[in-house]
Design goal:
436 residues; alpha/beta; Rossmann fold; OB fold (Dihydrolipoamide Acetyltransferase, E2P); 6-stranded parallel β-sheet; 5-stranded mixed barrel; globular; binds S-adenosyl-L-homocysteine; binds iron/sulfur cluster; binds FE3-S4 cluster
Length: 436
């Protein structure tokens, strides 16, 4: 049997796309291998959100040349980086041993591109700039039997000034409500208990293409699907988070009490430069509203440090908002200029050591808050969806609470079981306990 290996960079969108590529390859008679040396085909699904993602890809691609020399595997590269012309040019010039290049809008064509390459033995390139279409009927080879990603929309219309995603994923387009509900029902029938609804901004689901239903209505419908016990979603843009969504979250018993609400900066001046369309006050009042309706909500966020012109005062505003909201977790990033975006031409006016120092201050403060927020779980029982054994310690099981806290515990549960765990200790990044 022929074997494939997929390397996935970037976000859940890409992970979901890789699951689809896996399914296409399975249907073509390939099986998956963890060992690249044995692969007949290697797929590298790329991300271009920050420069270090680009660098990692090119580093790995260089390394693959030697492996290809030994095993003559086919190398296919796809994903967000391939939507950027200068990247594709660079690959064609410096990495001529890449056999297939396809873009994010050409995913459904992968089997025919592979067939074309197998027939002609020549490089095959297929990159479409954008698409208004959504391709239904591409199944996924699911990585887990108990949880699944469900893409509810693609693309982004927000054009945050630093962000490359609207250029790599095209305009926002929502899937039809019934297609989504059918997919989730069939997942539930196959034993899936948790779904993560994916979109760059799920709050604007259905709006741009007049689907006739809103994200809160969709959540209410998913909440009725038997067998689905946990509903999560990502990502919520604060500018579009409606009162109706807050109501839906508090009414729907299967919607988890966790909200990822990227703030990016605590300074209204920087937020305006980022084209985020909310300011510090609006974000804080949103948080107040959410906490009033859903008192046990867990909030997490994304923060960018070192956006051009960020002053010490602007950064102090970020630290201040972190201290006020007290997020359970934050993904923190150093600003990375991306070609083609609005802010790309802004002068990088903050010295690297200043940015590094701000970044480490931010990490320290957030770590302390994350730690302190965990104390409330001590000596309580929490509901955990078991995800199997810990990667590092075999006797330890791992899973997540409804509010997305990571729990390491001892017990006899199997992956996919929903059980109760008594929490006896807390660490910076997880809770520790024993299955009840
Ligand atoms: N659509 C989502 C996620 C976008 S990418 C959203 O709007 O939240 C995930 C995160 O990467 C962003 O929230 C942002 O914090 C970060 N990011 C995006 N572009 C970046 C850049 N050029 N430099 C540094 N961080 C960036
Ligand atoms: Fe990027 Fe902004 Fe769209 Fe998120 S909402 S993908 S940060 S442009
Ligand atoms: Fe995701 Fe990276 Fe593309 S974050 S949408 S894979 S640029």
């Amino acid at each position: 049997m022929k074997q494939y290996n997929i390397i996935t960079y970037g976000c859940q969108m890409n992970e979901n796309d890789s699951e689809k590529i896996s399914k296409m390859l399975t249907d073509l008679g390939y099986c998956s291998t963890g060992n690249i040396n044995n692969a007949d085909i290697l797929i590298m699904n790329t991300c271009s959100v920050r420069e270090n993602a680009d660098d990692r890809f090119f580093g790995n691609l260089g390394y693959m040349k030697n492996i290809k020399k030994k095993n003559d595997m086919i190398i296919a590269v796809c994903g967000c980086m391939m939507q950027q012309e200068h990247i594709v040019t660079q690959i064609k010039q410096k990495y001529p041993y890449v056999d297939i290049i396809f873009g994010t809008h050409n995913l459904h064509q992968f089997p025919s591109l592979l067939e074309k390459h197998l027939k002609t033995k020549k490089p095959v390139y297929e990159i479409q700039n954008s698409t208004d279409e959504i391709f239904e009927g591409i199944d996924s080879e699911r990585r887990y039997s108990y949880k699944a990603y469900v893409k509810i929309m693609q693309g982004c219309n927000n054009f945050c000034s630093y962000c490359v995603v609207p250029y790599t994923r095209g305009r926002e387009k929502s899937r039809k409500r019934q297609d989504i509900l059918n997919e989730i029902t069939s997942l539930a029938n196959s034993g899936v208990k948790e779904v993560m609804l994916l979109g760059q901004n799920v709050n604007s689901y259905g709006i741009a293409d007049n689907i006739g239903t809103s994200f809160p209505s969709l959540l209410r419908e998913v909440n009725e699907i038997k067998g689905i016990e946990r509903i999560r979603f990502m990502t919520s843009h604060p500018k579009d988070l409606s009162d109706d969504l807050i109501d839906a979250m508090s009414e729907c018993s299967n919607v988890c009490n966790h909200l990822h609400l990227p703030i990016q900066s605590g300074s209204s001046r920087i937020l305006a430069l980022m084209n985020r369309k909310y300011d510090r006050e609006k974000y804080l009042s949103l948080v107040d509203k959410i906490k009033a309706k859903i008192p046990d909500i867990s909030l997490t966020t994304d923060i960018i440090v070192g956006f051009p012109t960020e002053s010490e005062e602007d950064f102090a505003d970020t630290l201040d908002i972190i201290d006020t909201v007290r997020f359970d977790g934050a993904y923190t990033f150093i600003y990375s200029p991306r070609k083609g975006t609005k802010s790309y031409d802004m002068k990088l006016d903050i010295p690297a050591d200043v940015i590094k120092e701000r970044f480490s201050r931010l990490l320290d403060i957030q770590k302390k808050i994350s730690e302190e927020n965990k104390f409330k779980y001590l000596n309580t029982a929490v509901e955990v969806l078991c995800e199997g054994r810990s990667k590092t310690e075999w006797e330890i099981l791992t899973g997540r609470t409804r509010d997305n806290q990571l729990v390491n515990f001892t017990g006899s549960a199997n992956a996919g079981d929903i059980i109760e765990v008594y929490i006896s200790n807390t660490k910076s990044f997880y809770l520790q306990g024993k299955q009840i």
